Amino acid sequence: MHTLDRATQRFQAEFATSPAAIVRAPGRVNLIGEHTDYNDGFVFPLAIDRAAWLALRPRADNCVRVISLDMADDQSFDLDDLPRPDATRWIDYIIGVAWALQRGGYPLAGWEGVLAGDVPIGSGLSSSAALELAAARAFYCVSDFDWDAAQMAQIGRAAENEWLGIQTGIMDQMISAAGVAGRALLIDCRSLETTPTPLPATTSIVILDTGTRRGLVGSAYNERRAQCESAARHFGISALRDIDLATFAKRADELEPVIRWRARHVISENERTLRARDAMLAGDAEALGKLMIASHTSLRDDFEVSSPALDAIVNCANADPSCYGARMTGAGFGGCAVALVRRDDAEDFSRRVGAGYESATGNTPALYVTRASAGATTIKSE
Ligand code: ADP
Ligand code: MG
């Protein structure tokens, strides 16, 4: 049964009526532009056809009650007395969104409903941003304020960064809020300007989940951020976004090797991301694929955030004749890769690469052909 129907059915069973509103917010996959968002740079994600769904109705009091189908849990909280985060339970993401909205001066009303998602949790497709934006959309449905995608993305990020203490860039929330069906979104992470861009015709996007997860992502992520900041400080700029590859090449020797490699990844990745836009506008799948391959090499060798499993699945994909290019996607160390492939062969590609990767590594992968979907939306409202 579709996730939406599961949420609606449970709502009916629990509340003996139909939901007054149904909202959804998607997960995402990033085509190119990795570890550039917290350097004020460019990213190029698309919202995927997997999402967090909330079936809900308003409440007369100032409480929020949510039943999570995926966590088999039922939690409530009072908007007038938000409970502090407790070891990052799933409900803390929703409380964090309420906190960030209240801090931003948004008047909030209470609601109750059922949450269900089909973004795999913890695989790097950003189920957390999907949950945050679905929660923001739920508050929007029952309260009296306007929806501004970039502002709602910042609310979701504040919930994750400041309420939960998990450091992330703005990419995940921005694409979940502002995704456009059939388009990838070039996002300027400084201005939050978004440019919907069509993918080359006759291509499909395939997500390749290595089936591996890495626990140390948080500390490695913070270390990379600090290294990037130190490089920016050295050059006297506010972020690595502000230096081009030619200028960097002249001064790279001033940096110690590790910092130099980290900076080289970010600066070259920003350029690749802008060139990816040109390739997409020209409908040039070959050129886009080559940029994705170069991105993986840079993430593996200069930024050092790949893993043997990610390298293995990317190599299998890139060796396939139907693949234009594949790379790791997301923070790294495990999780997913993304491939640009010939549309008429996408399903067979997935079977071949899944089998090849499994026999090479012994890991069980999950591969899905995805489509670019719209950002957070209301599916139904009374
Ligand atoms: P991801 O890479 O998927 O974003 P995170 O660790 O950042 O992984 O976020 C996953 C957390 O988000 C889960 O542990 C849970 O607390 C919350 N979450 C995400 N999706 C759901 C869902 N469908 N139902 C309940 N909680 C969810
Ligand atoms: Mg997340």
Itemize the secondary structure elements and their pairings.
Blueprint: H1 3-15, E1 21-30, E2 42-43, E3 45-58, E4 63-68, E5 73-78, H2 90-103, E6 111-117, H3 127-142, H4 149-163, H5 171-178, E7 183-188, E8 194-198, E9 203-209, H6 217-235, H7 245-251, H8 257-281, H9 285-301, H10 308-318, E10 323-328, E11 336-342, H11 346-361, E12 366-370, E13 377-381
Parallel strand pairs: 4-6
Antiparallel strand pairs: 1-3, 1-13, 2-7, 3-6, 4-5, 7-8, 9-11, 9-12, 10-11
Helix pairs in contact: 2-3, 2-4, 3-4, 3-5, 4-5, 6-8, 8-9, 10-11
Task: Please outline what is shown here.
The chain has two domains: 205 residues, Ribosomal Protein S5, domain 2; 168 residues, Alpha-Beta Plaits, CATH 3.30.70.
Any overview of this molecule?
This protein is of the alpha+beta class and about 375 residues long. The chain has two domains: about 5-200 and about 375-380, Ribosomal Protein S5, domain 2; about 205-370, Alpha-Beta Plaits, CATH 3.30.70. The chain is about 40% helix and about 25% strand. It has helices spanning about 5-15, 90-105, 125-140, 150-165, 170-180, 215-235, 245-250, 255-280, 285-300, 310-320, 345-360; strands at about 20-30, 40-45, 45-60, 65-70, 75-80, 110-115, 185-190, 195-200, 205-210, 325-330, 335-340, 365-370, 375-380. A six-stranded mixed beta sheet has the order 5-4-6-3-1-13. Strand 7 and strand 8 form a beta hairpin. The structure holds adenosine-5'-diphosphate (ADP) and magnesium ion (MG). Adenosine-5'-diphosphate binds near residues 71, 93, 117, 121 and 127.
